[in-house]
Design a protein that fits this description.
- 2 copies of one chain form a homodimer.
- Chain A has 11 helices and 22 strands.
- Chain A is of the alpha/beta class.
- In chain A, strands 4, 16, 17, 18, 19, 20, 21 and 22 form an 8-stranded mixed sheet that branches. An 8-stranded parallel beta barrel of chain A has the order 5-6-7-8-9-12-14-15, surrounded by 4 helices.
- In chain A, strand 5, helix 3 and strand 6 form a beta-alpha-beta unit.
- The longest helix of chain A has 22 residues.
- Chain A starts with 11 loop residues before the first strand and ends with a strand.
- The interface between A and B is large, with 75 and 75 residues.
């Protein structure tokens, strides 16, 4: 038997069924007209934003990293809730545009921005988080050609990292940003070229569950930003401090102590040097805002036994929820939080493998998990499906087509 | 420095450029109107099929596993070249239908077939490779309801595996097929229910480079099929022996000795028991047919240095070629075959990281690879991109959109 990850807060049971945003899964599936289905809860999104606003100093703005979940209804729901939007491509620029988001609230990071993407962003008035000297040159040239001063921040590759993060974005050689020691020269050349100076973006890592590690990284970010601002000789209009706030996916993952992070940020803000008096500060969060607000639902279409092992075969799978399956193979595969949504809260009585419908042994949603007895027709829920689920999975693989997505 | 995998046969150089199917990459990109671009070579497909036909006994038919590359032009090109098509979903059923492929040549495997998929397949006259007793019951019930006898084969979960295969599909408990010892009872019930009996499908693994392992598995498959046929008491109209023929992706991968496999199959065919006199035999190949016929092309849009490490940032990435990047993280990441396509054959002079445009450190196409000097505008080629590339990658991730695909 292998444990499953912790089910997030905000999910309850009614008549033995999982309830999402006040509605039973069988109703949700009926409304959607199908499984597989991603359900995103507005109440959950609101609660997470509320918790963050309560914990963080008012000085610290909240940006949403669209890449975590670019569903139009999610972007639209976040529009009044957050201060800014971070995008990673021309495609995401079009999505924020379609949602009517003021381009002045949008910043664009990404190591491989094409000229057409730069032009669209400059024309719209979006801030570019420039990733290299070459990219800055191209942006300035495009701005000159179309007669519009680009709004430019520099993405810094810091010499420190976010310790314990799932994905390190700083410390040593990286394809992201400009090495810190080259930032002042680049910033002065951007300023000298007449661009609108927008400050710095310093991203140190993602998916960290240790408050201490986040607090240390944020302290380092502020210190580095202050030092660079001095060296540049110009105040920073804005400092994007990055994100990195993780969510618990796996057994023994401990929830991030948001209160501790907030308290540290209060201390940091109170101690900011005078040069930061008018600097906008923000954190950029994706997964932390939307990850636990999403549930992936699929239906059991076969129950079979092979050599004594019970398989629940669903109509979902890794083409929709690649990360939950283990990303096409990991050495130690761990179970995301999962449940039989139509037997929610019932006594677990058997150990089963919950698999997807794809013709590959990698298509496993839950491995040797203790579950209540489930049969054909029951619905399986995989939690923590709100970030990097539908948009980060190979939807075309094996021709089953994409899942439906709904927000309630 | 880390080596890259072996560049497949059939690719040459002209004026310092990679030539695919007789055309230079710069011309191909111009015709396509963009990078990123997958190019599939008809000549390469023809050659692989020709080699297989020459090596295998005429008795052994050749099936194409559509899942490897479902691009419409690939399916259409394979139509006159192979004997049968294996599909894995209702979506792939629609694709073979759109290509005008006779449903009598099509068989449908997959552990999670929905009722609507079973109905479409039965109505069309496609053979179902049934994966469980429950699925067989559903198929028979649907056949009764629509007044058409389903064509049913049984997918067997064998007690042996294909040794050394990248993905084991047999041996022990599996979600695929019916445990061998339960097959005779199920087969007799299918026969008794008036279905059209289509025989057995025994798949033991995939991506094996050892001829000895394949030869051993095929011997086991034939022996098991003969035993099951005896126990069922009815001759097998067809035996799908599965595939498993691998292609070299990584440094030190050795090409499969197809001649040895063919010779063994000749011996096996000559020694078939009399009960197999009218049994259709086939192997089912996907990756082996199309994998090396495809090349993924992307353009360098930034060249940058971070702490002494050179990064070539391209407009492509893991959203198109997930496997080449290491599938969102592997313990030991190895390099697929890759080259600077616009400096093809030039002297390698520097060690570089070739990365994609996505904002994640996992988006790496080639790690510490020795390459000729390349600059912005040069085109990068990643080989072995014909199978499980475009269709098996998260095309929507970060909003850059899908790559273009062309066949020449």
């Amino acid at each position: 038997m292998k444990p499953v990850g912790p089910i997030p807060d905000g999910y309850s049971s009614s008549n033995g069924e999982l309830v999402i945003g006040g509605r039973r899964v069988s109703e949700l599936v009926k409304d959607a007209g199908q499984t597989p289905l991603f359900v995103y809860s507005r109440a959950h999104l609101d609660r997470r934003v509320g918790e963050l606003r309560a914990a963080l100093p008012p000085r610290i703005g909240l940006n949403y990293a669209v890449k975590a979940n670019p569903h139009p209804a999610i972007i639209a729901h976040m529009e009044p809730l957050v201060d800014g939007f971070d995008i990673a491509s021309g495609g995401e620029l079009a999505m924020t545009g379609a949602a009517g988001i003021d381009p002045a609230r949008v910043s664009f990071a990404g190591p491989g921005k094409r000229d057409d993407e730069l032009e669209a962003a400059i024309a719209a008035g979006v801030t570019l988080n420039c990733e290299s000297e070459g990219e800055a040159q191209r942006a300035l040239a495009i701005g000159g050609r179309i007669g519009k001063a680009p709004r430019i921040a520099i993405r810094v590759n810091p010499d420190f990292e976010l310790k314990g993060s799932g994905m390190k974005m700083g410390g040593g050689a990286k394809p992201f940003g400009v090495d810190a020691e080259r930032v002042p020269v680049l910033a002065r050349s951007i300023l000298g070229a007449g661009a609108e100076w927008r400050g710095l973006h310093i991203f140190t890592g993602s998916q960290a569950l240790s408050a201490d590690a986040i607090i240390e990284a944020q302290g380092n970010v502020i210190a580095l930003a202050a030092q660079l601002s001095d060296e540049i000789g110009e105040r920073l209009p804005k400092l994007n401090m990055g994100g990195g706030f993780g969510i618990p996916y796996f057994p023994n993952d401990k929830r991030l102590d948001l209160g501790a992070v907030g308290q540290a940020l209060h201390r940091y803000v109170d101690a900011l040097p005078p040069a930061f008096a008018e600097t906008e500060l923000c954190v950029e969060l994706g997964r932390y805002l939307v990850g636990e607000a999403g549930v992936y639902l699929c239906r059991i279409i076969d129950r079979k036994v092979s050599h004594g092992v019970t398989y629940l075969v669903t109509d979902g799978g890794l083409h929709h929820q690649l990360a939950a399956s283990g990303n096409f193979g990991t050495v130690v595969r761990r179970n995301y939080p999962a449940a039989i949504a139509t037997q929610f809260g019932a006594e677990p009585t058997e150990v089963v493998n919950i698999v997807g419908c794809l013709c590959t042994p990698l298509d496993r949603l839950s491995d040797q998990a203790l579950m209540p007895r489930a049969d054909v027709g029951d619905i399986v829920a995989v939690f923590c499906a709100g970030a990097y689920g539908a948009s980060a999975s190979p939807a075309a693989f094996l021709g089953h087509g994409p899942a439906k997505e709904m927000i309630i």
